[in-house]
Amino acid sequence: MAETPSSSDSRARGGPASRAPGRGRVAGWAVSHARCLLESLGRLHRRWLASLLTVGVIGIALALPGGLYVLVKNLDTLSSSWHQSVRISLYLKQDILADEGQHLADELADEAGISATRFIPADEGLRQFKQASSFDAALDALGSNPLPGVIEVTPEAELPAAAVGQLVDRLGDRDEVDHAALDQAWLRRLTAILDLISRGAWVIGALLSAAVVFIVGNTIRLDIENRRQEIEVMKLLGASNAFIRRPFLYSGAWYGLLGASMALVVLGCCYLALGGPLATLTASYDGGLGLRGLDFSEGCLLLAIGIALGWLGCAITVNRRLTAIEPR
User: DSSP alpha helices (H): ranges in the chain?
Assistant: First the structure.
């Protein structure tokens, strides 16, 4: 008859008897953290007025850089549409025939950095100029067409402003081109303004993030002082700093999460408040302009940032204050 394996053999081979204590420790760790998580939320609920004020301040502090981010994102979209409207005008030499101008336009359309080209013959250019001006009689008195053929070049939309300037210089150096024109001043100003707003958003975001850390840290510091006697008793009973620190860390995370949620609510209210004027502005652009808010992933990122800032502010304060509290 076959022998029945003993329990010691089962533990030696890593059987259920050896795995059960490991699973029990993990379950106990999870239960302990879940209890601290809920208890810290309960403490915030019991002091709901003070917690609400703290959450409101954190929400406003996070909403400001969030609103600047939305502004920069929409300005980038608007600048992309403006980049698509950039046109480089190549004024050809007078001896270039219409067939040669059309062949040059087709050749340029295949070059890097160019999205499209359009050749305007001299006769068509003169006709358009007559329609847009009141110099019909003066132009007829000239006898000959003084206007050259023109090639309108549309750069690629994602081409940077500096690359557009280099493209203008390169096209102007061709033998068939007499002059290449592009008003680059407004493009440089637009790029500089967008860079300034983007850099300002990062700076303000960093400053307000530091403010959130200080707000949470100060709130937790007051909570620690209010529970000083309780902490001293826990240390007398042998509780470690890690055990005492845990509920405070979860409180900081709750402050950050609730503050970030408040920031999303503030941004949503601002979006609704701007809905009417935005609809009027969009109608004037034939629907080509629209305000885009935070999408789902960006909203989740804001929540994660709020939790991280709350946790950081609490950790800095708790680690310093607990070491200073010793039983008397």
Answer: 7-12, 16-46, 48-84, 98-109, 122-132, 136-141, 161-172, 185-226, 228-236, 241-273, 275-284, 296-324
Quick check: 18 pLDDT over 60?
no
Residue with tokens 């003070």: 50
Look-up: residue for tokens 């303000």?
204
On whether both 200 and 144 belong to a single domain, the answer is no
pLDDT digit string (tens) for 99-158?
888 888 888 888 888 878 888 887 776 676 666 565 555 555 555 666 778 888 888 777
Same domain, 111 and 47: no
> CA triplet 38, 41, 47: central angle to 5 degrees?
145
Say if residue 213 is in the same domain as residue 136. Answer: no
Q: How many domains does the chain have?
A: 2
Q: What single-letter amino acid sits at 85?
A: S
Query: Distance (Å, rounded) from C-alpha 289 to C-alpha 103?
Result: 36
What is the H or E stretch that residue 176 is in?
none
Determine the Cα–Cα distance for residues 154 and 84; give it in Å rounded to an integer.
7
Which structural domain range is residue 154 located in? 87-181
Q: Is residue 20 part of a domain?
A: no
> Considering the entire predicted model, what is its pTM?
0.66
Q: Are residues 112 and 216 in the same domain?
A: no
For residues 269 and 298, state if they share a domain.
yes
- Euclidean distance between CA atoms 148 and 64, whole angstroms: 53
Query: Could you tell me which residues are beta bridge partners of residue 180?
Result: 90
